[in-house]
Design brief:
- With about 280 residues, this protein is mainly alpha-helical.
- It is built from 11 helices and 4 strands, in the order ββααββααααααααα.
- The strands form 2 sheets. Strands 1-2 form a two-stranded antiparallel sheet. Strands 3-4 form a two-stranded antiparallel sheet.
- The longest helix is centred in the last third of the chain and has 41 residues.
Length: about 280
């Protein structure tokens, strides 16, 4: 341990103050996270590129450090990550000058991926399309599965479907198997209003880059939109079938939970389901 000499202005007495140089050296030696460590973190673990016809969807969330949050990432997180990693992953800060040709290519592509990810994820329309493709497939049951109850069959499906709902405030999801009639009724009414915003890129869409001119491109876009609408219509029919099938099954059992007053009034699951 070394000492520093200071002089008192009152008595000109020399005082010796201890200085912990070891602590100062430790502070100076604190290392920042390396790019290599950053790329190995969960935040940057990329999924495989998804292909839909001639169009490719690389993992934009993994490129911008939001591989864990994905569709739950806020616009503020996307903006902050872009600002942070467009600096940290800038080629000049990643040793591109001393890299070989393969290394230079990797550094440049990694940097470009951050910029492209921000372009897509900061645009509401483009992000919706990407999130639609990025979402995992999930089952849409139409009847109670063997060995399961109505609730363990349909509630998980409703929870996943709610992600795509355009209904403000979401939908009522009744998870209580002993729920009273009125709660079940609220759930049924809520889900009859379900409307999905999800996009459905078609596997056989036209490649707009191959258009001969803007008129040709516009025609190709219209054809692509038609294909998407047709695909969405088919999926929407399956969703409606799931909702209808689930409520039928639910109301077949809800009579056991009706109050005496409701029974006296002649309310039945069949009556409600069709009215």
């Amino acid at each position: 341990m070394m000492t520093r000499t200071t002089r008192s202005t009152k008595d000109d007495i020399v005082l010796e103050k201890p200085s912990n140089d070891d602590d100062e050296e430790e502070e100076e030696e604190e290392e920042e996270e390396t790019v290599e460590d950053l790329m190995k973190s969960a935040a940057f673990q990329k999924k495989k590129t998804i292909k839909k016809g001639s169009k490719e969807y690389p993992d934009h969330y993994g490129a911008i450090g939001l591989a864990v949050e994905r569709y739950l990432a806020t616009t503020e997180q996307i903006k902050e990550n872009f600002q942070e990693y467009s600096m940290k992953l800038h080629p000049d800060k990643c040793g591109i000058a001393g890299a070989d040709e393969e290394g230079k290519e990797a550094i440049e592509q990694r940097y470009k991926a951050v910029a492209i990810a921000y372009e897509v994820l900061s645009d509401d329309k483009r992000r919706r399309e990407y999130d639609s493709v990025d979402a995992p497939k999930h089952d849409l049951p139409t009847s109670v599965k063997a060995g399961k109850t109505w609730f363990t069959t349909f509630i998980p499906a409703f929870q996943k479907l709610e992600r795509w709902s355009e209904v403000k405030g979401g939908h009522v999801i009744c998870e209580d198997e002993d729920a009273p009639y009125e709660d079940v009724k609220k759930m049924y009414v809520s889900w009859t209003k379900f409307k999905s915003w999800r996009e459905f890129p078609h596997d056989q869409e036209n490649d707009l880059e191959s258009a001969n001119d803007r008129y040709h491109k516009r025609q190709m876009q219209k054809e692509n939109e038609t294909k998407r609408k047709e695909k969405k219509k088919k999926v929407s029919s399956r969703v409606a079938f799931t909702i209808d099938g689930s409520t039928s099954g639910l109301f077949n059992n809800v009579n056991t939970n009706l109050t005496k007053k409701e029974r006296a009034a002649g309310i039945t699951s069949h009556h409600y389901h069709h009215h």
